[in-house]
Structure formats: C-alpha cells, structure tokens
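Before relying on records like the one below, remember that each one covers exactly one chain. Contacts with other chains, cofactors or solvent are not represented anywhere in the record.
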Amino acid sequence: MPKRILQGAVVSDKGDKTVIVEVERRFMHPIYKKTVKNSKRYAAHDENNVKKIGDVVKIVESRPISKTKKWLVVTE
C-alpha cells in the first residue's frame, strides 16, 4: 500500500524536531454545491529543525515516532 503524501504550511515549530503542518482541502458540499474549505493539523518529524513558520512542506506517512507523530517532513 503506497504511503500518503500531503502538502501544507508549517504553523508551529516550537517543539524539538517537530513541526505542526496545517493541511487544507477543498471539496464540494454534497447538498448545497458550494466549495467548502476544511483544514487539519498534523505533527510531523523534522530531524534537523530547518523548517520555520510559513514554509510550505510535503509530509509523508511513516511508522509512529511518538504518541502524536506519524508523519515525516520530506526534504526536496
């Protein structure tokens, strides 16, 4: 099964080797047919602490690193 890759913006870099990435998705409302924005925040592992607030990053699924971290920041 392929690993999911999501793209979002870093909203917090307070933790050591951890960044919080907010991923926004848009979809059509099934009844009202209006475009709706939905966002979700993921804790991602940033090994070298290089990502700062406002950076657009890609994150990929991984094994659980801690209780809340199950994503890795992809360096390109």
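Residues 5-74 form a domain with the OB fold (Dihydrolipoamide Acetyltransferase, E2P) fold (CATH 2.40.50.140).
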